[in-house]
Amino acid sequence: MGFCSPRVLLFALSFLLAFAELVIAKHVGITRHYKFDIKMQKVTRLCQTKSIVTVNGQFPGPRIIAREGDRLLVKVVNHVQYNVSLHWHGIRQLRTGWADGPAYITQCPIQTGQSYVYNFTITGQRGTLWWHAHISWLRATLYGPIVILPKRHIPYPFPQPHKEVPIIFGEWWKADTETIISQALQTGGAPNNSDAFTINGLPGPLYNCSAKDTFKLKVKPGKTYLLRLINAALNDELFFSIANHTVTVVEADAVYVKPFKTSIVLITPGQTTNVLLKANSNIPNNATFLMAARPYATGPATFDNTTTAGILEYHHPSSATKSQKKNLPLLKPKFPKFNDTLFATKFTNKLRSLATKKFPANVPKTVNKQFFFTVGLGISTCSKTQTCTNNTRVAAAINNVSFVQPNTALLQAHFFRQSKGVYTTDFPANPPFKFNYTGTPPNNIMVSSGTKVVVLPFKTSVELVMQDTSIIGAESHPLHLHGFNFFIVGQGFGNYDPKNDPAKFNLVDPPERNTVGVPSGGWVAIRFLADNPGVWFMHCHLEVHTSWGLKMAWVVNDGKRPNQKLQPPPSDLPRC
Ligand SMILES: *[C@@H]1O[C@H](CO)[C@@H](O)[C@H](O)[C@H]1NC(C)=O
Ligand SMILES: *[C@@H]1O[C@H](CO)[C@@H](O)[C@H](O)[C@H]1NC(C)=O
Ligand SMILES: *[C@@H]1O[C@H](CO)[C@@H](O)[C@H](O)[C@H]1NC(C)=O
Ligand SMILES: *[C@@H]1O[C@H](CO)[C@@H](O)[C@H](O)[C@H]1NC(C)=O
Ligand SMILES: *[C@@H]1O[C@H](CO)[C@@H](O)[C@H](O)[C@H]1NC(C)=O
Ligand SMILES: *[C@@H]1O[C@H](CO)[C@@H](O)[C@H](O)[C@H]1NC(C)=O
Ligand SMILES: *[C@@H]1O[C@H](CO)[C@@H](O)[C@H](O)[C@H]1NC(C)=O
Ligand SMILES: *[C@@H]1O[C@H](CO)[C@@H](O)[C@H](O)[C@H]1NC(C)=O
Ligand SMILES: *[C@@H]1O[C@H](CO)[C@@H](O)[C@H](O)[C@H]1NC(C)=O
Ligand SMILES: *[C@@H]1O[C@H](CO)[C@@H](O)[C@H](O)[C@H]1NC(C)=O
Ligand SMILES: *[C@@H]1O[C@H](CO)[C@@H](O)[C@H](O)[C@H]1NC(C)=O
Ligand SMILES: [Cu+2]
Predict the structure, then answer these.
(1) CATH number for 55
(2) 283 and 306 belong to one structural domain
(3) Which residues line ligand 11 (CB under 6 A)?
(4) Do 336 and 425 reside in the same domain of the chain?
(5) Of 122, 155, 188, which marks where a domain is finished?
(6) Helix%, strand%, coil% for the chain, nearest 5
(7) How far is the CA of 119 from the centre of ligand 1 (A)?
(8) Residue 523: which pLDDT band, with cuts at 50, 70 and 90?
(9) What is the mean pLDDT of residues 477-482?
C-alpha cells in the first residue's frame, strides 16, 4: 500500500481533526482592542458640578471583559492637561513590565497629546481585577473593572450565577483631588478627607442631595448573583454589607477561595472580592434592602466617616405581583465599629486558597531570601518651597526609607543598564535598628529618603514579613505588590517573633492575593516566587501614604532562557 492510499489519508485527516479539536478545547486566546480617550467630563454629585478626568467621558470608566488567555491592546490617548499612566491592577504582566503602568517605575507618563498602547496577555488568571490611573491622585476618577472569564467551556468551581454585577467602591471629593493632594504636600499635613464614598460612581441616599444618584440592583427571588466587589477608594478600607442577607465569598484578587458565608465583607483599597448573593425566594415583591459600605479605620488621623449605599430590590415575575400593595420599609445593614480590628482579623483568617488539583496553592516551600520590612509613618524636614508648620512634614517609609520618585522610569534605567543617578540597589533587608515596633516609638521619628531597590536573581523564593509601626500611630496598611501574587502564610499582633511565629505558618492553603492589609499594630508574612523579570512596584494602596513615600521597588533579573527574559520595550513607550 502506498503512503497516499485513501486509508492513510483518512487516518491522517482524523488525526489532524482530533488535534485541532484539542487545540480548540484548550481555548486559543483572542486579541481584544480597547480605545481609552482620557478626557475631562462635567459630573454632578452632592449638588455640586465639577470637571473630572475620565476615560471616554465615562465615570466609573469602561469595563474590560476578557477571557483567561486573551491578549489586550488598550490604546490610551491623553487629551487632558495632566500627565497620565494606567495600571492593570493584579494582572501579572509576565515579561511585559512595560505595560504595568506605574509612572516613573515602569514607564514615563503619557503626556498631553501623546498616546501609548498597553499590550499584554492574561495568563493563568480569571476573576475580577481592575484598572486605574497610577500617577498622583488621578485614580480618584480614573478607574474601572476588569472582568476575566474562565477559558471557554471551563465552568466556575461554584454554581453558574444568573447574572454577574461589578460593584466598584470609590471615594468622592467635592473639591478637585489634584488640588487636595498638592495642597497637602505643600503644607506637610494630611490631605482633606473625602465627602462621600460611592458605589459604581453613585454616593446613594444617605448623603444630602444624592438620593437620585443611587445604584440599584434588581433581583429575582431564587436566583443567584455574582457580585464582583472592587475597592477603588483612595484612602479607606471598607466594610460592605447587605441588610438581611449573607453572601458567600468565592474569590479574592482573581484567585478562587474556599467558599464561606458572611454578612459583612472587609475589602481594602486594591483588593477585589467575588461573592455570591442568593436572592431569597420568600421575600415579598418590591421589598428593598440597603447594600452599604463604610470605613474600617485604624489610623491616627480623622477619616470620612460616612456611608455609601445602594438598593437591592426584589422583583417577582409579573403574574404573581398584581394583588398585594404594601409600603415596605427600607432595611439597613449593621456594621462593626469603625475600628473593629478583631472583626477584621476574623474575616481575613477565613480566606483560604481552594488548594485543589485543578486550583493548587503553589506556596514556595523553601525560602532563598528573607526580608523584614517595617511599614509606617514618620516625619521629614520641609524644603524651602513648602509652607510647613515647625519645618516638618508627615512622611511614610518602608524600613525607614521614604521613596523619592525618580525623573525617569526605573524599568528603562534597568533594561538599558543606566541605573546610575536613577536608583541604588541598597534597599535594606531589615530596619536600621530594632525597637518595640508596636510599643512606645523611639524619640527620633525622622525618616530617611532615597530611590532604593532590592535586586533579586530570577526565581528567588522570597519570604517577606511586613511589620506595622506605631510611630505617629498604628494603622492597617494595604500593601500591594505589582507583577506577582503572593501567599499570606501568617499574621499576628505585636512584634513579629522570628523564633516562634514561623512554626505557625500555613503552607497548605494560604490565600493568594496581590494586596494584603498589614494588621494595625501587627505583622503579616508573605511568600512569592520571583519568576517575572522586570521592575515591580510595592506600595501602600492608601494613596495618601503612597504620596508620603510608603513605596519601594523590586528588580527581578532575567533568567538564562529566552522565555525568562523581559521583552524589549515597545516603540511607542512614552519618554520623559
Ligand atoms: C503586542 O506584543 C506582542 C508580543 O510581544 C507582539 O507580537 C505584538 O506585535 C504587539 N502588538 C502591538 C499592536 O504592539
Ligand atoms: C481643605 O480644607 C481646608 C480647611 O477646611 C480648606 O481651607 C481648604 O480650602 C481645603 N482644600 C481644598 C483643596 O478644598
Ligand atoms: C444635610 O443638610 C442639612 C441641612 O442643610 C445639614 O444640617 C446636615 O448637616 C447635612 N448632612 C450632611 C451629612 O452633610
Ligand atoms: C430583616 O431582618 C430583621 C431582623 O434582623 C427581621 O426582623 C425582618 O423581618 C427581616 N425582614 C425581611 C424582609 O427579611
Ligand atoms: C462615625 O459615625 C457613626 C454613626 O454613623 C458614629 O456612631 C461614630 O461615633 C462615628 N465615629 C467617628 C470616629 O467619628
Ligand atoms: C412594585 O413596583 C412596581 C413599579 O414600581 C409597581 O407597578 C407595582 O405595583 C409594585 N408592586 C407591589 C406589590 O407593590
Ligand atoms: C476604637 O475607637 C474608640 C473610640 O471611638 C476607642 O475608645 C477604642 O479604644 C478603639 N478601639 C481600638 C481597638 O482601637
Ligand atoms: C511646633 O513646635 C512647638 C514648639 O516645639 C510646639 O509647641 C507645637 O506644638 C508644634 N506644632 C506642631 C503643629 O507640631
Ligand atoms: C512593646 O510595647 C507594648 C506596648 O507598650 C508592650 O505591651 C510590649 O510588651 C512591648 N514588647 C516588647 C518586646 O518590649
Ligand atoms: C531613620 O533615619 C533617620 C535619618 O537617617 C534617623 O535619624 C532615624 O533614627 C531612623 N529611624 C529609624 C526608626 O530607623
Ligand atoms: C509630565 O511628565 C514629564 C516627563 O516626566 C515632565 O517633564 C513634566 O514636568 C510633567 N508635567 C507635569 C505637569 O507634571
Ligand atoms: Cu499605608
Answers:
(1) 2.60.40.420
(2) yes
(3) 83, 108-109, 111, 576
(4) no
(5) 155
(6) 10, 40, 50
(7) 6
(8) very high
(9) 98
Tell me if 537 sits within 8 A of 555, measured CB to CB: no
H helix or E strand, kind and range, residue 251: strand 247-252
Classify residue 575: in a domain, yes or no.
Answer: no
217: CA distance to ligand 2 center in Å?
35
- 23 found inside a domain: no
Distance (Å, whole) CA 357 – CA 360: 5
Q: What are phi and psi of 486, to 5 degrees?
A: -130, 160
**Does residue 228 carry a pLDDT above 80?**
yes
pLDDT at 366 (0 to 100): 97
pTM: 0.94
Question: H/E element holding 86?
Answer: strand 86-89
Number of domains in the chain: 3
Domain that holds residue 62: 29-155
pLDDT tens digits, one per residue of 184-206: 999 999 999 999 999 999 999 99
Indicate whether 12 pLDDT > 90: no
Q: Residue 88: pLDDT band by 50, 70, 90 thresholds? A: very high
Ligand 9, pocket-test mutation among 438, 497, 499, most atoms within 8 A of CB: 438
pLDDT at 21 over 70: no
Whether 75 and 44 share a structural domain? yes
| Domain co-membership, 53 together with 114 | yes
Question: How far is ligand 2, taken at its centre, from the CA of residue 430, in Å?
Answer: 39
Phi, psi of 360 (to 5 degrees): -75, 155
Pocket test for ligand 2, best of 173, 180, 192 (most atoms within 8 A of CB): 192
Query: Across the chain, what does the average pLDDT equal?
Result: 94
